[in-house]
Amino acid sequence: MLGPLVNALVVVVCSLAGCFLIRGIPDRFEELIKKAIGLSIIYVGIRGALENERILLLIMSMVAGAVVGELINIDKWMNRLGLWAERKLGMAGGAENSKRNFSKGFVSASILFCAGSMAIVGSIQSGLQGNHETLFAKSILDGSMSLVFGASLGIGVAFSALPMLLYEGGIVLAAMAIRDYLTPEIIREMSAVGSLLIAGIGFNFLDVKEIKVANLIPAMFIPWVYLAFMSLVRP
Among residues 154, 166, 167, 176, which one has the least CA distance to residue 24? Predict the structure, then answer.
């Protein structure tokens, strides 16, 4: 669990540094930086999604994942979790804009740090081989993003370290338990879907039209279920 723990710690430290040390960024710089980050996230997401080799499976995963995620309404529960943390911090009576930023920072950062291919591959490497190099590299990238997100969206970004730790830690433990069922193909297709979700987060930062990316999270696991099932039924 060393990799996930280091990753979470870096996110907390960098986001708090951004929130309290460089929070005085002028609005015009903050807005342009957010747009630049959004464009960069879209590029990273699309580049990762292009590694997909089963386009129909990707489409099926997105549609099926959207149905499951909307039924569960993950976005609502994640926002409620953010608001609960807000109340515990005594921030519930704050300005409405501050409230929105807390929840947006928590939800957006949680998805961004969890949905990428590095989170999946790095956690699997940690679980299967005890190799934490990928998660250490991811920590550097996440720390850079947390610094800017913390400055623009506030302390909610720091709390995204908790679901990220649970997510990466869960994959590490799952990889140790079911290592025989994780093929390179499954990892590639899951990573491609996750990358497409990252692109969705980028569009949200551009304020084009809000996409409930959290409700698409189940799509990441459809390739795992489908390919594992196909490997069992094939002669």
Answer: 154
The per-residue DSSP string of 51-108 comes to T-S-HHHHHHHHHHHHHHHHHHTHHHHHHHHHHHHHHHTT-TTS-HHHHHHHHHHHHH
CA torsion angle 83 144 134 188 (round to 10):
70
Query: What's the pLDDT at 106?
Result: 79
Give CA 59 to chain center in angstroms.
20
Q: Which helix (H) or strand (E) holds 127?
A: helix 117-129
pTM for the model: 0.68
Q: Check the CA dihedral 202-47-63-214 and report its sign.
A: negative
Pull the structure tokens for residue 204. Answer: 């949200």
Could you report the per-residue pLDDT of 57-74, keeping only the tens digit for each? Answer: 999 999 999 999 899 888
